[in-house]
Design goal:
heterodimer; A: alpha+beta; B: mainly alpha; Arc Repressor Mutant, subunit A
């Protein structure tokens, strides 16, 4: 069927009955298989729109002023603030900055059915039933640690990244505030336009970050993770 | 000139997904194609010459499809690894017969020569008028009409051919095979 000559064998002006019959048959075939786009695709498109709206809001609120892009300025701000926050930590301070930035970055791979963070025994949760289907993953290396991130998207709350850092727990900063739930501590801080919640699970640092969701939404998701999904 | 409203775009995802599937013949590639199309459209504010968003999206979809094909043809071919296969989307469907019929139909459309495929996708799947399709595809209306007749004829012949019917699974109890309306 892929040759043009085969197409040319079809009369250019077939009789009108045949034209009508083919048109109706095609219509019937297409209607019979008409299915909506997969939910994951619809969420990804919705997330693109949310991301675009958030970028637009930020650019309106704070126009470019220093000769480099706002995204770059934001990333630099996060790095600087976090380095200041954890400057006296025993662990390399840039590792925590990397975890936050990874959680706020973009996915580089499709989301698998299940994913265990590299260098840990922690499996990323399935949050579809809570309105946060997975939309992708990424992996970053920094200072001998691996930061594995899974991204989730919600119609109501935009998108978030959940990063798990391999190796010993990072020391969290003194700023922000701590919320205790079921004996575990959750560190909550707002950096630039991003809301960040971090905690230690199974001996590793976990970070949930979002530019669109509120802290209480992130905390509710994080609370369910303590002691869950280990392999 | 009207400005394209990004908030209205999610309403076109279903039709665009089916159009993309018919263009590339694979539901997985179709997802990537639709996502890439929306990434391009949302990259900056867009002005429409006419008010028809769908015709504009068709143009972007076609351009994205063609450029992705060109890029893919330049890329070295690699064999899929087991890891890649495990990561593949294993969506389950509760209507396997419909999924098979869709794969067969969209596969037949995807096997058409490009110009014919685009004409059928624009008119029969996206629902553009002949004039809109001609404008979106940069062809004369009469050309679109001819391509459409031939494309429909070929697809119907492929889907209804005895060999295709023999490969199709038997209809489930209580369901009827597709029939011509006439």
């Amino acid at each position: 069927m892929d040759s043009m000559s085969e197409m040319d064998s079809v009369p250019e002006r077939p009789d009108s009955d045949q034209v009508s019959a083919d048109e109706q048959r095609i219509g019937a075939l297409l209607r019979a298989v008409a299915a909506p786009a997969p939910a994951a695709l619809q969420y990804r498109i919705a997330a693109l729109n949310v991301d675009r709206s958030a970028r637009r809001r930020r650019s309106i609120a704070r126009p470019r002023a220093f000769g480099f892009g706002f995204a770059g300025a934001f990333a630099a701000a996060v790095a600087v603030v976090v380095v200041l926050l954890v400057g006296s930590a025993t662990a390399p301070p840039t590792a925590f900055a990397a975890a936050q930035q990874a959680a706020l970055a973009k996915p580089t791979a499709a989301a698998p059915r299940s994913l265990v963070a590299a260098g840990t025994t922690i499996a990323f949760p399935r949050w579809s039933a809570r309105g946060w289907p997975s939309i992708g993953t990424r992996s970053d290396r920094l200072g001998g640690r691996t930061v594995t991130t899974e991204f989730y998207s919600s119609y109501e709350n935009g998108s978030l990244g959940y990063s798990i850092v391999s190796g010993a727990p990072l020391r969290l900063g003194a700023r922000g505030h701590t919320v205790t739930h079921s004996g575990s501590n959750y560190w909550v801080i707002r950096v630039g336009g991003a809301q960040i919640v971090a905690w230690v699970q199974a001996g590793h640092t976990c970070v949930v970050a979002s530019r669109t969701a509120q802290a209480d939404t992130l905390l509710k998701l994080a609370f369910g993770q303590d002691g869950a999904s280990r392999v | 000139m009207a400005r394209l409203d990004p908030q209205s775009l999610p309403g076109h995802v279903d039709r665009l997904y089916r159009a993309a599937w018919a263009l590339c013949g694979s539901p997985h590639e179709a997802e990537d194609l639709v996502q890439e199309t929306f990434v391009r459209v949302l990259a900056r504010p867009r002005l429409l010459r006419s008010d028809d968003e769908l015709a504009y999206l068709m143009r972007v979809l076609r351009n994205t499809f063609l450029s992705s094909r060109r890029t893919a043809s330049r890329r070295p071919q690699v064999t899929a690894t087991l890891d890649a296969l495990e990561l593949a989307d294993e969506r389950a469907t509760d209507r396997p017969e419909q999924a098979l019929a869709a794969q067969e139909l969209y596969g037949a459309i995807a096997a058409l020569p490009e110009d014919y495929r685009l004409a059928l996708v624009a008119v029969d799947i996206l629902g553009l008028s002949y004039r809109e399709a001609a404008r979106a595809l940069g062809a004369r209306e009469a050309t679109i009409t001819t391509r459409l007749h031939r494309a429909r004829s070929k697809v119907v012949a492929t889907v209804d051919s005895p060999s295709t019917q023999a490969e199709a699974p038997p209809p489930r109890e209580g369901t009827a095979p597709l029939q011509s309306p006439d």
